[in-house]
TrEMBL record:
Domain EAL: 2-251
Superkingdom of origin organism: Bacteria
Protein name: Signaling protein
Segment forming the signal sequence: none
Organism of derivation: Methylobacterium haplocladii
A Pfam entry, by short name: EAL
GO terms for MF: cyclic-guanylate-specific phosphodiesterase activity
């Protein structure tokens, strides 16, 4: 049988740089527990994401996207405490040429380290202009077929906005931090976020509030009905390890000690 493939599998310049991942927790206040972690690109010497992403161009975008998935899964399999903890991976829709072919490296990595498909969530950012919305829809369908979940990142900040949500319903939307900043003091932001949250829930889409930095923002968003949170209020990303997480559930200001060991 001929394998499904695409030009991206055959071409592209090999990566000339190394990188690792930092992990940033997403907390579920209903359970007063860590729900999962987002994998964020970092340099092996602690360089920020911008420095690494600045090395990515049209010649190596495909290989970088594939390498990020594999690196995140390998590190998560060594660090995560159980098989219920979710791993959120950012991906570049415009780097996925043929969904069925381009998911192979992810499937192989997950099988090799025993990482469950249901633990993996793929985020695509609204800030990256979608060249072909139908192509993104095909990606989502293919990923769901394998048991992965999907999310729109930076929702409310980019090119497509509500149009993406109308075109296809991901499993999650992550509200953009600029929309949430200072929401406790902004009636307009509260109305907008409450409306988006209600609309998403009616569509069967869960909402994650990201970039939360103050207790006032957190309490306002929790009052709106949001249960999943990510931001510096809870923890900062930790490179190749899991950070300690500050919780605000039934035991206020309780700190959960994360895994301090470094990945080999």
């Amino acid at each position: 049988m001929t394998k499904v493939g695409c030009q991206g599998c055959k071409d592209g310049t090999p990566l000339t740089f190394d990188f690792t991942m930092a992990f940033h927790p997403i907390v579920d206040v209903r359970r007063d527990a860590v729900w999962g972690y987002e994998a964020l690109v970092r340099g092996v010497q602690g360089e920020g994401a911008a420095q690494i992403l600045g090395l990515v161009d049209a010649t190596n975008r495909y290989k970088f996207d594939q390498a990020c998935r594999v690196k995140a899964i390998e590190l998560a399999s060594a660090l995560f405490p159980d098989d219920e903890t979710r791993l959120s991976i950012n991906f570049m829709p415009n780097a996925v040429y043929e969904p069925a072919a381009c998911i192979r490296a992810t499937l192989e990595a997950a099988q090799r380290v025993g990482f469950q498909h249901r633990q993996i969530m793929f985020e695509f950012t609204e800030n990256e202009k979608m060249v072909d919305v139908d192509h993104v829809r095909r990606i989502i369908i293919e990923y769901r077929r394998h048991g992965f979940s999907t999310a729109i990142d930076d929702f409310g900040a980019g090119y497509a906005g509500l149009g993406l949500l109308a075109s296809f319903q991901p499993d999650f939307v992550k509200l953009d931090m600029d929309l949430l900043r200072g929401i406790d003091a902004s009636p307009a932001r509260r109305v907008i976020v409450a409306g988006v949250t209600q609309m998403a829930q009616a569509l069967g889409v869960s909402v994650i509030a990201e970039g939360v930095e103050t207790e006032a923002e957190f309490e306002t968003l929790r009052g709106i009905g949001i249960a999943l949170f990510q931001g510096y209020l809870f923890a900062k990303p930790a490179v190749a390890s899991l950070p300690a997480v500050r919780m605000f559930g039934y035991e206020p200001e309780r700190v959960l000690e994360g895994c301090a060991s470094q990945a080999a």
